[in-house]
Amino acid sequence: MIVNVPTPQALNDVALRLYFSAWSSLIYIRAHFDETFPPGEDPRPEKGDWAEEWSEYIQGYQPEFQAVCSVIQQSNELALKARICGVSPYLLLLNSNPKFSAIPGDIDFSELRTIDASDLPASVNSLCNKALSDDYVRTYNEIRSLRNKIAHLGHAGSNFEPDKLLEILVDQYIELWSDRAWLTDRVNFASRTGLAFFQDGKYTSAAAEVMYELPLILSAVKKSAFKKLFGIEKTTRRYLCHACVADASVRYHEVDPVRCRTAYLKDKSTLHCLMCSADYPVVREACGTDKCKGNVISRSEHAECDVCHSRGSEQSGRGGS
User: Is 146 found in the same domain as 23?
Assistant: First the structure.
């Protein structure tokens, strides 16, 4: 019999782990530059005061960008295989011409040839209910071609721009996982990397890692894609999620109450968080803290009184037990 037959869940899980590995690599390349060369009025490094330094910096990172390109393609292929596997895992063996033996014994699925990468988009469109968009297929083939050049020649023959790779990743998620919550996935998969070994909740945590990235994440996603990725307009006013702030408040990371807002008003009395995907009841009352114009307040289990969702200010005299 055939053993070690893949499941769509397992294939998709690895695809997402690879996806967020590529994303994290690109975000930290930018974050490390910003730590040494702080952004000016124009936060775009290629347009600001450090344009020459940025150009030299990303030139030195071209080998890493090539590795990221290869990871993106591997993520794409596994995600498409997961879709086909959802119909039947044995469809992955089309055109494989396996050699069978008259001697009884198990056959390991992983040792059988599966559908070629070049045939995956057409196979998905033929075998699955939801077809892939033309734009996605075009980008898939471009990335596949670059990955093949890297694999066979050691270089892609062209330079990579990190913003372009991030844009490709945004479009990839929208195409392949539109039914999932991006920021929730980001935290989930940050807690499943090798570095998660050190995430004890006291000195570091997955939420702290993602909160550190958040300003760069939000600026990397263009207005046209923001709503597709997060379900809200980029200009929608966002608020602090007390639960996520608590998870991210560790020894080595202090949450910025202005730049780390992950929640929005779902309706007048409900706040929804993009990071933890939870809903929280709120009241619309003016914050009692001087100079804070916030008017979204709720009781936080992490404080002994009500807390403002704009700056995290505790509301003395309100909501105490």
Answer: yes
